[in-house]
């Protein structure tokens, strides 16, 4: 039963992430970002995901908060939580596959590891090109997994 609940939650999370990624109301900002800026965004995002403010984000909190933030962005047409776009939502979904919760340090480390993977020239800045490559690569993977093509 527990596995069924988690499967349903992950499906809802994936659906919300995909719907948000396709929403024309909240365009993706691909301007350059430094590693320090990424850390600040990670901290801000952690606070938004930690719904009960106990210093730990659980899988359930991440699912609930992400869904709420995406619905708010869709309703208002503005990015109410920079960094929670489809790419980050899928990253969180993947990260929570092996964990029920994470504290702020673990969350920061996971986000910075992801940043470093995207920073192809390892200069501490995600350029517009590097961010676009990550986004394009993500679309290609999604298209291959779904058997279709994404616009």
Structure in words:
The structure is a single chain. With 151 residues, this protein is mainly α. The chain has one domain. Helices cover 65% and strands 7% of the residues. The protein is built from six helices and four strands, in the order αβαβααβαβα. It has helices at 2-22, 35-49, 59-76, 86-95, 104-118, 128-146, and strands at 33-34, 56-58, 101-103, 125-126. Strands 1-4 form a two-stranded antiparallel sheet. Strands 2-3 form a two-stranded antiparallel ribbon. Helix 1 packs antiparallel against helix 4 (86-95). It is globular, with a radius of gyration of 15 Å. The N and C termini lie far apart (37 Å). 23% of the residues are buried.
Helix and strand topology:
Blueprint lengths: L1 H21 L10 E2 H15 L6 E3 H18 L9 H10 L5 E3 H15 L6 E2 L1 H19 L5
Antiparallel strand pairs: 1-4, 2-3
The topology string of helices and strands comes to HEHEHHEHEH
- Work out the count of structural domains: 1
Number of DSSP E strands: 4
Low-confidence stretches: 1-26
Quaternary status: single chain
Give descriptors for this structure.
disordered N terminus; globular; two-stranded antiparallel ribbon; 7% strand; mainly alpha; 151 residues; single chain; 6 helices
Short structural description:
This protein has helices spanning 2-22, 35-49, 59-76, 86-95, 104-118, 128-146; strands at 33-34, 56-58, 101-103, 125-126. With 151 residues, it is mainly alpha-helical. It has one domain (2-24, 31-128).
